[in-house]
Structures are given as C-alpha cells and as structure tokens.
Amino acid sequence: MNPSQHSSVPPEQTLDPGDWNAFRAQAHRLLDAAVDRMEGYREGPVWTPLPLGLQADYQVPLRSKGMGPEAIERHLTALLPYGVGNTHPRFFGWVHGSGTPGNLLADITAATMNANLGGRDHGAMYVEKQVVNWCREIFQFPETSSGLIVSGTSIATIVALKTARDRCFDFSSRKTGLQKTALGQLVGYTSAQTHSCVARAFDILGLGSDALRKIAVNEHFEIDTYALQTAITEDRAAGFTPFVIVGTAGAVNVGAIDDLETLADIAQAEKLWLHIDGAFGALGVLCEQLRPRLTGIKRADSLAFDFHKWLHVNYDAGFILMRSEELHRRTFSERPEYLKGAERGLAAGNPWPVEYGPELSRGFRALKVWTQLAEHGTDKLGALIAQNCAQAAYLKTLVDDHPHMDMVAPVAMNICCLRYRAPGQDELEVDRLNDEIVVQLQVQGLAAPSTTLVNGRNAIRVNITNHRTTRADMDMLILEIDRIGQELMIATNWIKNNPKSLADKH
Ligand SMILES: *Cc1c(COP(=O)(O)O)cnc(C)c1O
User: Fold this and answer.
1) Mean pLDDT across the stretch 50-77?
2) Per residue in 156-169, pLDDT tens?
3) Measuring from atom 12 of ligand 1, which residue has the nearest CA?
4) 97: closest CA among 339, 381, 426, 376?
5) Helices 471-486, 365-400: crossing angle, 10 deg rounding
6) Rounded Cα gap, residues 176 and 483, in angstroms
7) For the chain, how far is it from start to end, CA to CA, in angstroms?
8) Residues with CB under 6 A from ligand 1
9) How confident is the model over 249-292, as pLDDT tens digits?
C-alpha cells in the first residue's frame, strides 16, 4: 500500500500511472517514434489527409470508461504523420513556420513542470522575463517597454489596439465602455494588404471593422502614404477621431514592407498610435539584408509578431511588445483580492503577466522560445531568414526564365506570387487552372503552396518560412507546376470537362 494512504479508507484514486516502469517504457517508445518522424520529415508526401479509418477514431461517443495507456499510445503514434505538412521542406502555404526538434525537448520539460504563467514567483517566470528582455533588445525598445507572450499575432493585435483605444479615453473606457464617449467615432488606418486580424481586432474591441480605413497600396503593395495623409485629414474634417495607424512589416499576400519610417513620421505629426504588424517580417531585423528596411519598427508604440513563423518555434507562440509599460498595464491591470501580490513567498514576482493581457492562466510557451534563441543564437536564425529570401529570389529567376509562368508581384522578401500561363485561354479559365494546379500539388503530396488574389487574378503563392527548404525544392516545384499545368491543359481538356467547377467559382 502507498505509505501516504490512510488505513481506514480504501485506496484513493489518482491519474498517475499504476506502473511507473511501464509508463517510462511507453514514454521512451513514443519519443523514439517522434524522433523517427522528425528524421524523416523530408520523406513522404507534404500533406496527407487523415485516412477515413483514423477519422472514424475521432467520431465516437464520449467514453465513460477510459481506454487505458496502451490504446492511447497506439492512437498517438498513429496520428504522428498527419500534420498540416509544415514540417516538410516543400510546405509553402500561407505563412507557417516549420518547427524544430529542439522544441520537442522544451515541450517535454514544459509538460513536466506544468507551470501556470499568469503570475507568481516561480522558475518559469524567469524564463519568460528573459524572453521579454531579449525581445526589447532585438527590436531596440527602451527599458520602459513591456511585452507578453501570446498565442499569436491575432491576440497580440487585440492587446495593442485595446491599449491604443483606451489611452484615448484616459482609460475611463474600461469602466464606461464606448457607449457615451465625447470623442465621436474612433477610426484607424492600414493598407489594403493588411491581414484580416486587424479588422477582427476592431470588431472585437467594439470599434467596428468599418472604422478601419483600408488605404490603397502602391505598385510595391506598400501603403500609399499620401493617400493615408489625405484620409486622416478628411476624417478629421468630417468629425471622426483618428487614433491609430497600423503598418505592416511583411504583408501576408506578397510580403510587402510598408514605409515604416514615413508611417512613424505621420503618426508623430498627427499624434496617432503606431502599431506594426510584423507577424513574420519583423524578425527580419535579425538579418543584415532586411534590417535597413525595418528601422521604423523601433519607433512604433507597439509591435505584434510571431515566434512560430520565421523563428520556427513550434506552435503556438507570438508576442506583443509595447513601448510604454505604464500604458500597457493601465489597459489590463485588475487585481482582485484573490490575486493580490506579495513581497515574499509564491505570490511575489510582481508585476504579473495577467496585468498585460486578457489571459489569467497561461502555459509555458516561453520555454520553447527561450530554447530556440538560446540554442541557435540570433546569427544563425537571421541567416536562415536571409537564406529563405535568397531562395525566393532564385525561384523568381526560374519563373522569369520559364515560358509558361509569370511573376505577378515583386519579391519583397520570401514570398513569390506567380501565375501559370495558358495562351489563348480566357483569364477566368486561367484563374481556375492556377487554383487546380495548387490543389493537384497538394493532393499529390508534391508541395503545398497556397493561392491568393493579386490585382484581381488568382496566383500561386509560394511562401518560404522554412529552414528545411533547399534550392532543389524550388527546382522541383517549378517542374511539377509545369507538368501539372501541361497535363491539365492538353491531355484532359480539363476546363471544358468541368464547366460546373467554373460556375462555382465565378
Ligand atoms: C500570420 C499573420 C497574422 C496572424 O497571426 P497569427 O499568429 O496566426 O494569429 C497577422 N498578420 C500577418 C502579416 C501574418 O502573416
């Protein structure tokens, strides 16, 4: 009998293993399966949909009796190959980081500690504070700045814009809401290329997404700063209250970097908050080639970015960096008696992260960020960013030299938008053809680019935020696009046979 158990009652239950040796053996087996999978990331299809048999495993009624550890091990091992595909060197869709084996060790440690980083004084908190300090250093923010690790840029944007919003009301809006403000309607500005998370933040914060003015872009897909200035002036004249400019360092469609220095000048002159969405692009400051185009970041009031994109931290981990710790804390701090801090003991360690964002309970994301930065160092992480940009430039040369493909946007960083050409076909048919090429690349497991619209036409979008990608992967991508394009065009007379899919789309 367990020596801690009371003799007068039957043994009490726990979720701990009954047999620690069996658990240890099981953990070792699963670890081996995980490392095997990682070693073989390049092998096999990029994306494999979950087979029907395994789908069925996740469509069963809730169990009242547990299936036990052996069955769980079988399920976990069976699931390993069926990720999004972003661990594969030819995953080029959206903006996904590729993760690192080193992060597995961080996640094992974090799972073992099972720390809650809402606050208090314990080991994990020191790791997060170190990460916050390193972020200040990376982006040259002052000592008086603050930061918080969050799930991603979407949440980071909400934290930043709430601060920008509440500051306008000297924080009285935290109590009264926005129902009866004397300021009229708040409006903000961003480019037409901005990620949808900015409008979502406006929505969530009760400002309404219409209050976000989408300013036109120039031929480089960067915000037109003259149009921005005009919009601000017109809004003021019409009685609106401009309060924020959201610049983008790496727009999601084509990777454009707004003229951040000019945005900082305008924000300063107009007394507006400058927020920068640097989800993937901001970490370009780690490489010499991109750093000169990102100098405006250090003038921002707030910066949102992700570790899980170009830093390859395993999902999920993003960050909000705020120039003013004071404004940041005044936006979120609310410490009821049961969360009171102390000078000594476990309740010390002030200020607590709960004072900087909406979450109280928070996992130990900081550890995987810390291990990534500490194990590899900023030089290597920066060099990998430069490597991806060089690969995108190389891909552009392949497209430029190809008779059946065109680039449809400049390559600002790591994203190539290209279009398969089909001479003699109507543009709508070419749109559909490009969409189908991407679907075929994905379902045949060859590569996983995504699609987007550039100047109103479908494009094949190749985003490279992947430390496993090589130039040979670019060569193969072009060969396969061409092969699939030719097959669709010539062999099957595909478009004529699929009038319905055309009608669906347009
Ligand atoms: C990915 C991305 C976002 C959203 O970030 P999440 O981490 O997915 O919440 C916002 N902006 C840009 C430019 C992005 O690439």
Assistant:
1) 96
2) 999 999 999 999 99
3) 279
4) 381
5) 60
6) 62
7) 71
8) 95, 152-154, 195, 197, 250-252, 277, 279-280, 306, 318
9) 999 999 999 999 999 999 999 999 999 999 999 999 999 999 99
CA atoms within 13 A on the CB side of 422: 24
Q: Which helix (H) or strand (E) holds 76?
A: helix 68-79
Closest atom of ligand 1 relative to the 248 alpha carbon = 13
Question: Cβ neighbours of residue 210 under 8 Å, at least 6 residues apart?
Answer: none
Do 301 and 328 contact (CB within 8 A), yes or no? Answer: no
Locus of tokens 């089909």 = 422
How far apart, in Å, are the Cα atoms of 294 and each of 212, 282, 371, 415? 24, 7, 25, 17
Distance 279 CA to ligand 1 centre (A): 5
Ligand 1 nearest atom to the CA of residue 281, by list position? 13
Å from CA of 70 to ligand 1 middle: 38
Nearest atom of ligand 1 to the alpha carbon of 308: 7
For 194, the token pair is: 């901005």
Q: Which residue has the tokens 């400049």?
A: 410
User: DSSP assignment of 156-184, as one string?
Assistant: HHHHHHHHHHHHHTTTTHHHHTTTT-SS-
Determine the residue type at 129. Answer: K
> Could you read off the pLDDT of 81-125 as tens digits, one per residue?
999 999 999 999 999 999 999 999 999 999 999 999 999 999 999
* Residue range 315-335: mean pLDDT, rounded: 96
Ligand 1 atom with the smallest distance to the CA of 316 is 7
Distance from Cα 252 to the centre of ligand 1, integer Å = 8
Name the pLDDT band for 342 (thresholds 50, 70, 90). confident
- What is the CA(94)–ligand 1 centre distance, in A? 9
Q: Which of residues 312 and 7 earns the better pLDDT score?
A: 312
Mutation to probe ligand 1, out of 84, 86, 151, 153 (largest number of atoms < 8 A from CB): 153
**Is pLDDT of 491 > 80?**
no
- Express each pLDDT in 176-219 by its tens digit: 998 877 788 999 999 999 999 999 999 999 999 999 999 999 99
Q: Long-range pairs for 125-134 at CB < 8 Å and ≥24 separation?
A: 125/349, 127/364, 127/366, 127/367, 127/370, 128/353, 128/366, 130/366, 130/370, 131/366, 131/369, 131/370, 131/373, 134/373
Partners of 60 in beta bridges: none
Domains and CATH numbers, the chain: 108-376 (3.40.640.10), 377-504 (3.90.1150.170)
Phi, psi of 142 (to 5 degrees): -75, 165
The answer to whether the CB of 305 falls within 8 A of the CB of 97 is: no
Polymer length in residues for the chain: 506
